[in-house]
Amino acid sequence: MEAKEIKTEGLEEEKQEGKIREIAVPGEKIVSGDDFLPGDWTRREGKDIIASRYGIVEKQGRLVRIIPVSGVYVPRRGNIVIGQVIDIVFNGWILDINAPYNAFLSAMEAPRFINKNELSEYFGFRDLVVAKVENTRGRGIDLSLKSKNLGKLEDGMAIFINSNKVPRVIGKEGSMINLIKEYTGCDIIVGQNGIIWIHGKNLEEEMVAKEAIMFITEKATIFGLTEAVKEFLEKRQKTEEKA
Amino acid sequence: MGYTKRYDGRKFDEPREMKAKIGIIPRALGSAFFQFGDTKAIAAVYGPKTMHPKHKENPEKGVLRCTYDMMSFSVTERKRPGPSRRSQEISKVSEWALAPVVDISDFPNTVVDVHIMITQADASTRCAGLNAASMALAQAGITMKEMVTAVSIGKVDDKLVVDVDKEEEDHEEGEGATDIAMAFTKSGDITLLQLDGKIQPEELKEAIKLGKKACDEIYKKQKEALIKGE
Question: How far is A194 from chain B (nearest CA, A)?
Fold first, then answer.
């Protein structure tokens, strides 16, 4: 690929740091030669490996793959997501989880027995629910509540980011999100689908957390992001004290 | 005498100044801007998402749906807002021009919506729109075989010209003006070919060759914009 290379950081921060990143454009040759194997979102055409999607090129040994930087959230089994109740049917709830399909949460998943007339009392319209993706095969997505810390979200606020930037917001083993939690004192739940719920003691705290997350999504490709976020939070804290 | 010099002083095989940018609409999954001189187009991509109306769903694969329209202030004489016969036709041909490269077979019963809006028109609007749409689709993370690039080739009087503007389109002397909109994939397949006027078969072949050459140049701009990012 003759395209100019730009400096960006990988999704797995530490491991990729210091490397120069290459952007793949659909239909463009990434590498040539039989030594390479086509990975995710790439294909082989004769000797060349061609990109099938827009994203960052990652070469792991012989394997060449593309890490998407944009696009819709595609649910995977085991993902924790935040969804909004958009419909109540006779045996459960329909949730909008910002994926290509709506998700279904069965009434059987609730920790206690729910009479079908009481469904809307448990989760009402527009309520936010944290749930786990149980199944993505067949028609539609099935959700589950059978895990700890799942259920309805009350108070607080929800913000929306691109799901491809979720790994950056969480950081390596949760380093980034813990940093924000520590500085702002907010309770934060990050859904793999890009919906983030923030709950703090007051609105100011929540706004600082929100701005910090937006800062990460904007600067997702710079080096030493954790340090930059730390600096950002410290600066915010000082202006808060002055005010 | 014939057409010896272009109205705006360009070379016969020279397109107007181009500008390309992606990520101009924050709420869209993918968006792009493309400009040919005074022709400006924006495109936004949403999806894959659930299809409405439901009867248009395809249980085998996702559906690509294009909407092309011109802003009411994009032309000198106010364009009545809303769909028209012309905009419906261009929506459909844009859809056909893009469909061969996009792959949404992993998402049955869904739709990928592409909205193309012309904010300023000076001929070749469908080509500018297609260039923007192709970039927006790539940014939206849609699986694509390759990119689509479009250009309009004109036959003004007896000369073939690249990237027709309104003045040339309205040229009446001699043999008049013929406007050929064409779109190519990167590997050279033709996905759109529309002709308005008169032309000899040999000249058409010539025009397509000229178009492919121009598209290679335009493609560079699209690629640059995608690599540069938001």
Answer: 13
* CB contact (8 A) between residue B142 and residue A68: no
The verdict on a CB contact (< 8 Å) between B146 and A55 is no
Asked if the model's pLDDT at residue B28 lies above 80, the reply is yes
Domains of chain A (ranges, CATH numbers):
13-68 (2.40.50.100), 80-153 (2.40.50.140), 157-242 (3.30.1370.10)
Q: How far apart are CA B185 and CA B75, in angstroms?
A: 29
Non-local CB neighbours of B151 within 8 Å, separated by 6+ positions: B15, B124, B127, B162, B163, B182, B183, B211, B214, B215, B218
> Which residue range is the domain that position B82 belongs to?
18-225
Report the candidate in A111, A71, A110 with the shortest Cα–Cα distance to residue A93.
A110
pTM for the whole structure: 0.90
Chain B residues closer than 8 Å to A28 by CB = 186, 223
All residues of chain A having their beta carbon less than 8 Å from the beta carbon of residue B186 are 27-28
Residue A39 predicted with pLDDT over 50 = yes
Q: What is the pLDDT of residues B48-89, one digit of tens each?
A: 999 999 999 999 999 999 999 999 999 999 999 999 999 999
| CATH at B147 | 3.30.230.70
**Distance to chain B for A5, nearest Cα, Å:** 8
Q: Is residue B9 part of a domain?
A: no
